[in-house]
Amino acid sequence: TLPDQEILIGKMLVQRDFEDVALLLESLPLEQRLETWNSIPVDKRIDVLVVMRRDPRESLLEEMSLNDLDALFENIEPDELVELSESLPTRIVARALQAMDSKQQKFFEVTQQYADEHAGRWINQGFLTLPQNAKVRDALRLLRRDIAKYIDAVFLVDRLGHFIAAVRVSAVIGAPDHVPLSDLDEDDFATITAEDDAFDSALKVQKSGFSALPVINAKGVLIGRLDIGTASEIVNEDYERKMMASAGMDEDEDLFSPVISSAKNRAVWLGINLLTAFAASWFIGLFEATLQQVVTLAVLMPIVASMGGIAGSQTLTLVIRGLALGQVSTANRKALLSKEVRVGGLNGVIWALVIGIVVAFWFSSPLIGLVISLAILMNIVSAAFVGVLIPVALDKLKLDPALSGSVILTTVTDIVGFVAFLGLGALILT
Amino acid sequence: TLPDQEILIGKMLVQRDFEDVALLLESLPLEQRLETWNSIPVDKRIDVLVVMRRDPRESLLEEMSLNDLDALFENIEPDELVELSESLPTRIVARALQAMDSKQQKFFEVTQQYADEHAGRWINQGFLTLPQNAKVRDALRLLRRDIAKYIDAVFLVDRLGHFIAAVRVSAVIGAPDHVPLSDLDEDDFATITAEDDAFDSALKVQKSGFSALPVINAKGVLIGRLDIGTASEIVNEDYERKMMASAGMDEDEDLFSPVISSAKNRAVWLGINLLTAFAASWFIGLFEATLQQVVTLAVLMPIVASMGGIAGSQTLTLVIRGLALGQVSTANRKALLSKEVRVGGLNGVIWALVIGIVVAFWFSSPLIGLVISLAILMNIVSAAFVGVLIPVALDKLKLDPALSGSVILTTVTDIVGFVAFLGLGALILT
């Protein structure tokens, strides 16, 4: 109930669990969500908005007047504005920018140069830099200030701002005041280039063992850092995006979008699938005469299509994961294809036999058993084949295999399955 | 080619990119993988093994002699042994334990008390603790040692080892020596209980803004910490597990498993799907006489099943994500069901009309158009219904909706689709 939620939210806000507040708001139907939102103190609202998904976030922003928006965004930080700018009217973004100091404005402009899929878009400013000839005492002076979260290294730059090296905070604390920081630097400290892929860069941060990595522009100038909190958000969102994309939905889809907009979002996907279903039907239609003669074929059709679809989606899923992790390349593509086709061949033979025998007894017809056996074998093997080729080809065309891979695959396995089964049926049974 | 890979791996090892080495090894066909593995210096091998997936890791361990294994695991750290123990012969685990000091042995035993799905299994020892009455100078003394990665707070405990509070490292550095740490502690610092769900706890760490959270046992005693590096591994593996589970595969499935074991792993899923396909066929078989009279129904059958399946999987995916993030609960289940059914109703009406009109013209039969319209509407609406109910029910039964949700859903939408379509066909057309 509502008062309970408000108590719960009050507790979450004290603990600064803004993500939990966001999740809770997203889980509420629209009316309740607005009511609960209004119970949140104005000074905490930005923190909550920043971590919300786009659709539910916009459901709240749309209900606010321009004046309220203005008041809310007067003191926003540049990295928060980066997160929210796509959901805000241009006028509000411009006003929020005006209220910032010139350093913040410049930082905002830098991040705006990069697209969502680039690492440069997601950097923040909370890093510590020192000239390359600085000493331990200089670093300690910086560290004594109220520093940002996720700081476990100090970055050294030259006079032109190029990133030179990083020194662990723990190394600084243990060293005498007069030691040059360059004596303590880490070997081969990893850096990220602003144009690098955001997901790959985020994984790099997660695996680096550091809480943040420096981000440099094409000229080697240090422009910000990607911290492990932001990195985890990027990685988690990407996994969610893939999950949702496999059902033709958007990562930002709201649990409680208004019915009409939600229906509209999903209709596109249903429409695309309808086209492929019509294509399959058209192929079945070619065999109407055969179906008329042997109606059993109609009864068994779904088995052939379904087995091919399942086998194909297993290969597809394995390959999509491999592509996302950079494990599938020209070097091993052939070996992978050959392995998957052999797996398909083995499972094809086994299930062809099982299904053939069951069907032969069920319909007391060894010939129908033979027809479905051959069709199953052909469909499972070709499913393995296209299960590798489709995602690799989509990836080469810079299309997302997680989104369109499964539709294309199912179209192929449906058509191959129906044509093989009904074609063989026409040859052998009529 | 092989020498290239060895140079690449040499470079990765210098940069301590063990994850990249692991990914590369996993991407190689078996023979090449073994050859490349043998080129890796013995003292780096544990670091690589720890970050590999289970199946490819075991493909390497199986090829090593017991003596080699012994030598390799002599100096293993307890948290590395936790990661690897499931892949190792008991004898090797026992020997590695013997070589540890009693503190390490005890830590290993503590983690072994918790199952893989509990946070307690994934803790490490690299944290700093001090008595609750310690002063800043005590904390600085600790910090000056060579401390572990991901340390941004010092934990305070009472004399019985209960967790009391946490103090930010940055607060310690800025404060005078004689200040009691308890004056600097964070309000409401989040803790994790060892029995908590590992995935939820890992998300909590990622969202906390800290690099690690303290893990306590049921009595409140501090037993370790969950750092954000481990947390990210847990979260990423869980997302991958869900992706792979949706195709009936294991997260540890190897890109280059031997053909026979890979075929065996996938065969189970194909078998389960075969049962559901046979069930669908059996229902179709009930309408053989109708199909014989109106063979067009056989041609159009796949369209009805496919539209229901797609609409249902959209709802299913949304609900599975909501469940994973804790956004679907008894509080909003009804509202969600009602919204999804309304979305389904809207899309059902739209696509029923579109498909009905196309089919009426295609087969010059308004009655067949009417039959398919009604069947599509019924199937899409019931798909929305079961798309919410199935994952919620599975979750209540502590079963993973990401694994079995889609099979059950497709079974329902196939059967409802075929029965509605052929049943209406029998009523209206014959």
Descriptive account of the structure:
The structure is a homodimer of 430-residue chains. By secondary structure, the first copy, chain A, is mainly alpha-helical. Chain A folds into three domains: 110 residues, MgtE N-terminal fold, CATH 1.25.60; 117 residues, Roll (CBS-domain); 171 residues, Orthogonal Bundle (Tetracycline Repressor, domain 2), CATH 1.10.357.20. The first copy, chain A, has 19 helices and six strands. In chain A, the strands form two sheets. In chain A, strands 1-2-3 form a three-stranded mixed β-sheet. Chain A has a three-stranded mixed β-sheet with strand order 4-5-6. In chain A, strand 5 and strand 6 form a beta hairpin. The longest helix of chain A has 31 residues. The first copy, chain A, is elongated, with a radius of gyration of 29 Å. The termini of chain A are far apart. The model of chain A has no long low-confidence stretch (mean pLDDT 90). The interface between A and B is large, with 116 and 116 residues.
How many helices of chain A? The count is: 19
SS-based class of chain A = mainly alpha
H/E topology pattern of chain A: HHHHHHHHHEHEEHEHEEHHHHHHH
For the sheet with most strands of chain A, the description reads: 3 strands, mixed
| CATH third-level topology of the largest domain in chain A | Tetracycline Repressor, domain 2
Counting DSSP E segments of at least 2 residues, the number of strands of chain A comes to: 6
Instruction: Say what oligomer this is.
Output: homodimer
Mean pLDDT of chain A comes to 90
By CATH, the superfamily of the largest domain in chain A comes out as: SLC41 divalent cation transporters, integral membrane domain
The gross shape of chain A turns out to be: elongated
* CATH class category name of the largest domain in chain A: Mainly Alpha
The gyration radius over C-alpha positions of chain A equals 29 Å
Greatest interface by residues involved:
A-B, 116 and 116 residues
CATH architectural type of the largest domain in chain A: Orthogonal Bundle
In spatial order, strands of the major sheet of chain A run 1-2-3
Pick out the low-confidence regions of chain A.
none
Helix content of chain A: 55-70%
Our estimate of the beta-strand percent of chain A is: 5-15%
Number of domains of chain A: 3
State the end-to-end CA separation of chain A: 67 Å
